[in-house]
Amino acid sequence: xxxxxxxxxxxxxxxxxxxxxAMVRKKPDCVLGLATGSTPIGLYKELVRMHKxxxxxxxxxxxxxxxxxxxxxxxxxxxxxxxMWENFFKHINVDPRNVYIPxxxxxxVDEFCEWYENRIKEVGGIDLQILGIxxxxxxxxxxxxxxxxxxxxxxxLKESTRRDNAxxxxxxxxxxxxAITMGIGTIxxxxxxxxxASGKNKADALKKTVEGPITAMxxxxxxxxxxxxxIIADKEAASLLDKELIEIPK
Length: 250
Fold this sequence. Notes:
By secondary structure, the chain is of the alpha/beta class. The protein has helices at 9-26, 41-54, 80-87, 109-122, 159-165, 184-188, 203-211; strands at 2-6, 31-34, 62-65, 67-69, 99-100, 128-131, 153-156, 178-181, 192-197, 229-234. It has a single domain (2-234), classed as Rossmann fold (3-Layer(aba) Sandwich). A 7-stranded parallel β-sheet has the order 1-10-9-6-2-3-5, with helices on both faces. Helix 2 (41-54) links the parallel strand 2 (31-34) and strand 3 (62-65).
C-alpha cells in the first residue's frame, strides 16, 4: 500500500486525476470503477478539464459505479445515476452504452446483483477502481461488519452513514435505508485501486485503514492486502498517521 499525502483537497484531486488519465491513455478501452460522494467531485472536474483542454479521450472507456440507493429512480436528484451524469459523464465523450450504475429500482435486486457481477467479469474486470472512505471506515456501502469476501448485493445502511449523507437530503428521514453495493471481494479484484480521503472527519478511519489490523469492522483496512493500492489523502485526513512513516507536508 502506497500512501501519498497532499497539502490540500485540490492537490489530492489533481494527483488522482493524473493517475486516472495515465490509465486511460495507456489503455484507451480500460474499465474504470467509479465512486460518488463529495470527495471525488474534484477528481471528476479535473478529468473533465483534461478532456476539454488536453483531448483526454473516454470514447472507448467502460465504467462501473460502486453503488446506488435502493428506491431512488435514476432521475432523482440524489440518486447516484444523477450525480454521475451531472458531475462527470455529460461533460465527456463516454459512450452511454458503456456506463454501468446499479439499478436502485430493480424489480429483483438479487438477480440484478448477480447480473452486475457477471457483467464486470464479461468485460475483463476493473482496471482501476476509485474509492472514497466513510467516517466509519466503509468503502462503497460495505458497512463495518461486512464480509471481506462479499460480492455485489443489497446492504442496510448504518445510522452513522445515513447521518453523514443526510446533508444531501432535506432530512435524515429522506435518506434511503438500503443500497446496492459492490462487495469488498469485488472491489479487491480490481487490478489497481486508488482511495481518496479528505478532511479531519476521515482521519480516524484512515489511521485504522493504514495502521490498524485488517478487520471487517474497518472494511477499508482490507486494502492492506491489495497488490496495487494507493491512498491519496490531504493533510487533514492524514493528520493522525504515524509521522515517522508518513511525511506530512507543512
